[in-house]
Amino acid sequence: MEPEALTGRSPADGVDSAFGVTGDGPGQLTPVECYLLDALERLDAAESRAIQLEAALSHSRDIGAAIGIIMGLARLTREQAFEQLRSASMARNVKLHVLATQVVETGSLDPL
Known about the structure:
Elements: H1 11-18, H2 31-74, H3 78-92, H4 96-106
Helix pairs in contact: 2-3, 2-4
């Protein structure tokens, strides 16, 4: 398949023909523009999802470590330790991962 030369009186004409601008009216997107817009939206969504997953992974490590600390200190099962952490989080109106980080840093669930 041979590449086609872009034709037109100005660079804008050449770009318009490359993207298939037809002059059907202002504000109407060509199929190529729709495809590119969709691809950019999917890329943005994927980047947002990756950031959320990285944060969740970091939080889950802290929560797991805090549960282990509570299990060791209070001799509880994993489920009991998680329930104690969750209850303390709700009672203090602090996000679970924030409280978990405090437990990991201080070695205790007791308030400072």
